[in-house]
């Protein structure tokens, strides 16, 4: 069977369109926070428990969990978006995200999965994660929050 140039071009275009359709319409699967934990996330949870037990502060840590409660924004400068994140080991931390230095996460709802890299500060209720943004002066490593595949820093 012999194909002419027009037929080959049509086959290539249709193949590209089919691949684009497949890539943009793949189902998104949401896994529970505690399903298939990676060694890295388990190590971070162990590290957090160590920080909490020893009352350690000012350490950067990456945690994944579920937003269990949106709190009112702190509107006194510097302004912060606040929410409580529950981890797979039932530990909770307060996340305070500086919205004067990083975009506010307007789509954040209770029950949403979030990944946070920030500075841990000990308190008796589980601790606080802050510094979830870039360093505007470039003097230190910044943090971030990932929600629905978008990074806020």
Low-confidence stretches: 26-39
Classify the secondary structure makeup into a structural class.
alpha+beta
| Shape designation | elongated
N-to-C series of helices and strands: HHEEEEEEE
Helix content: 10-25%
Distance between the termini: 56 Å
Number of DSSP helical runs: 2
Strand order of the largest sheet: 1-2-3-5-4
Major β-sheet annotation: 5 strands, mixed, barrel
Beta strand %: 25-35%
What average pLDDT do the residues reach?
A: 84
Radius of gyration, Cα only, in angstroms? Answer: 21 Å
Give the total of beta strands.
7
Task: Note down, in words, how this protein is organized.
The chain has 153 residues and is of the alpha+beta class. The chain is built from two helices and seven strands, in the order ααβββββββ. It has helices at residues 5-24, 39-53, and strands at 59-74, 80-86, 92-98, 113-121, 128-130, 144-147, 150-152. Strands 1-2-3-5-4 form a five-stranded mixed β-barrel. The longest helix is centred in the N-terminal third of the chain and has 20 residues, at 5-24. The protein is elongated and about 75 Å long.
């Amino acid at each position: 069977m012999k194909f002419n140039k027009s037929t080959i071009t049509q086959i290539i275009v249709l193949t590209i369109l089919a691949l684009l359709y497949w890539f943009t319409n793949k189902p998104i699967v949401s896994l529970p926070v505690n399903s298939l934990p990676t060694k890295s996330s388990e190590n971070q949870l162990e590290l957090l428990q160590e920080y909490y037990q020893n009352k350690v502060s000012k350490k950067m840590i990456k945690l994944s969990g579920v937003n269990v409660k949106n709190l009112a924004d702190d509107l006194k400068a510097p302004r912060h978006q606040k929410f409580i994140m529950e981890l797979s080991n039932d530990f909770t931390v307060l996340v305070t995200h500086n919205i004067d230095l990083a975009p506010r996460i307007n789509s954040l709802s209770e029950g949403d999965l979030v990944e946070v890299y920030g500075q841990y500060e000990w308190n008796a209720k589980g601790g606080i994660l802050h510094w979830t943004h870039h360093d505007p002066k470039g003097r230190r490593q910044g943090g971030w929050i990932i929600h629905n595949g978008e990074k806020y820093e």
